[in-house]
Automatic annotation (TrEMBL):
Single Gene Ontology MF annotation: hydroxymethylglutaryl-CoA synthase activity
Protein name in the entry: Hydroxymethylglutaryl-CoA synthase
Active site positions, chain numbering: E90, C122, H266
E.C. number: 2.3.3.10
Keywords assigned: Lipid biosynthesis, Lipid metabolism, Steroid biosynthesis, Steroid metabolism, Sterol biosynthesis, Sterol metabolism, Transferase
Protein family according to the UniProt entry: Belongs to the thiolase-like superfamily. HMG-CoA synthase family.
Source organism of this protein record: Macrosiphum euphorbiae
Function: This enzyme condenses acetyl-CoA with acetoacetyl-CoA to form HMG-CoA, which is the substrate for HMG-CoA reductase.
Biological-process GO terms, alphabetical: acetyl-CoA metabolic process; farnesyl diphosphate biosynthetic process, mevalonate pathway; sterol biosynthetic process
InterPro entries: HMG_CoA_synt_C_dom (IPR013746), HMG_CoA_synth_N (IPR013528), HMG_CoA_synthase_euk (IPR010122), Thiolase-like (IPR016039)
Amino acid sequence: MDNTQGKWPDHVGILALEIVVPYTYVNQTDLELHDGVSKGKYTIGLGQERMAFCSDREDVVSLCLTAVSLLMHRTRTSYSNIGRLEVGTETPVDKSKSIKSMLMRLFDNCNNVEGVDSTNACYGGTAALFNSIAWLESSAWDGRLAIVVAADVATYARGGARPTGGAGAVAMLLGPNAPLVLDRELRASHMADTYDFYKGDMGTNYPTVDGKVSIRCYFEALYNCYYLYRKRFLKKFADTNNSESNTQSNTSPKSVLQHFDAIVFHSPYGKLVRKAFTWLTLHDVQLDAKCYDNESNLLKYVNSDISVNMLSELGVIKDTEKLFKKLTAPTQKLPKNIGNMYTASIFGGLISYLLSKPTNEMAGKRIAMFSFGSGMCSSFYSITIRPGAKLETLIDLLQHVPVMLENRQSASTVEFENTLTNRELAYNKAPFEPTSNVDNLFPDSWYLTHIDSTFKRYYAQKK
């Protein structure tokens, strides 16, 4: 396929996905006991169950290498058929050399590959996705496919933020005639200069975080992105009653939000996602009250002053619980069991939804995606699922994910703390020889063998 016709290809989107996580995790219930906090502080208060963490053999590069190599193997795609490779991350290992360049070791004599890294906190994966979709729809497209990798290792200093860590990578194969199509003309962004979360201290890999400000930024971005997306949706379809999602003349009017079958949020931790869903729903009620005539429990909020504080009230949570279970709870399986994968978090939510019901129930569904990165960058966009053999293949290739999660090794809290301490000591250290056992890695995983005295990093693949 080429682009000689001067026309963008049809149905550009995601052809396949691959997710990679570290072999080890710690149970949040065990961490509660270890930290001496009240029972449920992490499991209920944060809404998390397990947290993945990396040994000194694993880093963002090894996760990316594993994700790309497995994606190519499972899809039987030739490296020569990849024309763009872009990485989204906020945990680079080099201030100059991109992770994308390190992935080129996989592309034996296939060096004509565009793309580099995109960085802005948890948003980089979305930026890489948008860039690659734009390439596929541009005059520069040469008929080949694109790969986007979102990967991070999220760790925090000892304290209240440490249980919100995690690690993982999601690789996506992009191209035309895809089963997961990014909706054209339906995207909105909100960007601002904030210091809610940043990594200005080059002597540590830990961020400086103002939790309250970061939450405020998240909700501000969510509202503004949805408000702008809603305007674009209404402009595109002129009237939601006449959109392709609501063509029956005898149906009740729908708000823009009600056209979605699932809503995926960037997920630092589960409780924030729960609040975000409530925040979005209540604002949608105020924007389109007539569409909620049959939802008396929600109509009472039409004239309410919606604040972040009210999102924790039991009554408000109860009033939105039914919709949450339908639209967003199915997206939380992986985020709850892996933790915050930063740039990969939102795509972990997407995979969770794709695994939540039979393939034949997925066709025609529309998924809302809210991506947020502190600092801040955010976007609201949507994906439509197309039926057919390619959808069946995409979901079939994800069936190993639940098994992989259960085959991980549960580590003690002492092992977890010691591992993070060792990573602190090894940060920016050269030469460096990892000591963790390679046996404690999944088969076919790439891993760090050593760092030499000039800070060059060396990797190998476990067979």
